[in-house]
Amino acid sequence: MTSFDEIKTLYQTLKTEWNKKKPDFKQCNNTLLQIKIGMTKHTFLPTTNVEASQKEYLIARDILEVGVQCSIAMHDIPSFERYMAQLKCYYLDYRDKLPESVNQYHLLGLNLLFLLSQNRVAEFHTELELLPYDIVQTNTYIKHPVALEQYLMEGSYNKIFQAKSNVPSDTYNFFMSILTNTLRNEIAECLQKAYKKISINSATKMLNFNSTNEMNDFAIKKKWILGQDGYYVFHLEEEKKAIEPLPALQIADHAIHYAKELETIV
After folding, report:
1. Which of the 8 DSSP states describes residue 166?
2. Domain PCI, which positions (predicted)?
């Protein structure tokens, strides 16, 4: 069995590496895996039957906070979600037993942004309801995803693109990129349905790219072909299908039949 002292040693190793200017994320992740195995053999994880000391809870919370941030740095979404699910127990269920972490609202805000980026709006609101009203209104880390959700509901996509350059922390950039890419794909689908063709300059503006080169890279992924006149032409190879006539006689026959049935019932 891994002793508490061994876990503390691994914890110190993790903190030393994590606090470097350029930490080795793979090394941090390997250390985290070792610590997680040790934690399952002790009372670090909250249970209904056994109570751990406050010191153990604080160490466990600190480890999970590093785990959340390391997962973001490695772009590992499943790992982020697992660490965050455990960490919320310490933030919410043990809020009366532990002093507030300096990272608490930073990471809770990051989780809200994650839910938005995955289009899990119902879960976003559920998580938001767990937070104090004054925090939702005033905390920078929480206000940011709340404002983004409002922009989404309004359809103010331009404001979301602008918010990408005004994130409260660099750790928010990963999920902001996912969110803006999703929006671009949705806008692109609308463009294909609304226009027969569109100029590269107009498309660059509508999709909020900084240059036509970025726009063209996106267009290549979407398999849009740029003509010599500087326009993207949509559905060039697809002829519009003739609209099939409605089977008027068949519909009328069914309507009369239903009317007769209703008369019979009455």
Report:
1. G
2. 78-247
CB 115 within 8 A of CB 84: no
Residue with tokens 């269920």: 93
Q: Which tokens in the block code for residue 85?
A: 């699910």
- The answer to whether residues 136 and 128 touch, using CB atoms and an 8 Å cutoff, is yes
In the chain, where does the domain assigned CATH 1.25.40.990 lie?
Answer: 1-132, 163-265
Which two structure tokens, joined as six digits, stand for 69?
């941030």
Domain 163-265 carries which CATH code? 1.25.40.990
CB atoms within 10 A of CB 255: 10
- What pTM was estimated for this model as a whole? 0.79
- What CATH number has the domain spanning 1-132? 1.25.40.990
Query: Any idea which residue has 């099939």 for tokens?
Result: 244
Kindly report the backbone phi and psi dihedral angles of residue 105, in degrees, each rounded to the nearest multiple of 5, phi listed first: -80, -25
pLDDT tens digits, 63-85: 999 999 999 999 999 999 999 99
Which token pair is 266? 């009455």
